[in-house]
Design a protein that fits this description.
The chain has about 190 residues and is α/β, with parallel strands linked by helices. The chain has helices at about 1-15, 35-45, 110-125, 160-180, and strands at about 25-30, 50-55, 65-75, 80-85, 105, 130-135, 135-145, 150-155. The chain is globular. The N and C termini lie far apart (about 65 Å). The structure holds fe (ii) ion (FE2). Fe (ii) ion binds next to strand 5.
């Protein structure tokens, strides 16, 4: 009887407690060199180093494997983090995935900020692509010194457009899952080019 009751209580608790994510605490990637990465992100994206955590041993195993873990301010409490792990083989990438797929997108205030960022990065010698029009936002693309693809994006969509996209998103996923052919529910995005 008590087992049944415990199960009942567990079900009730599961249904009543919903996880609420506040924002990114941090996302972490590997870097080639921590100092180079800190300097590059400050110089090119004006992102501040806020925390550096370093150990000479892996905390769990105590194996000697020095690392430097750096945290950069990505605005509004978001944190972009990196690890330098000098004792591991050099960084590679997933060669089965095109370079444009895995990327880190950071938001800027508006289209003017995006265009001036593009000009500023280009003046500093960065190879920048864009702005590219995605209908409800525009983006520029470039690579950091670690080979991570970065995107700066400025939202241009209206509240109504974003609501329309949200309403068709589940239908698009369902269709895509069946066909693997791009659904047309949001084709209007491309008519805005
Ligand atoms: Fe993106």
């Amino acid at each position: 009887m008590s087992t049944l009751l415990n199960t009942f209580v567990r079900v009730i608790k599961t249904e009543s407690i919903m996880i609420q994510i506040k924002r990114f605490h941090h996302v972490a990637y590997r870097c080639v060199n921590a100092k180079q990465t800190v300097d590059w992100y400050k110089k090119h994206l004006n992102m501040e180093l806020t925390v550096a955590i370093a150990e000479n041993e892996v905390p769990s195993t105590k194996a000697p494997d020095p690392y430097m873990h750096i945290f950069l301010d990505a605005g509004m409490g978001n944190v972009l983090a990196f690890f330098e792990i000098p004792n591991s083989p050099d960084m590679g990438r997933d060669e089965n995935t095109p370079k444009w797929v895995q990327h880190i997108a950071l938001e800027v205030e508006d289209l003017d900020a995006l265009v001036s960022a593009r000009d500023d990065l280009a003046a500093k010698g960065v190879d920048v692509l864009g702005p590219v029009n995605h209908g409800v936002f525009k983006s520029i693309y470039f690579f950091d010194p670690n080979g991570h693809r970065l995107e700066l994006a400025a939202n241009t969509g209206t509240v109504e457009q974003m609501a329309e996209l949200k309403s068709v998103a589940p239908l698009m996923i369902a269709e895509w899952d069946e066909t693997k052919i791009a659904p047309k529910h949001a084709a209007w995005l491309h008519e805005m080019d």
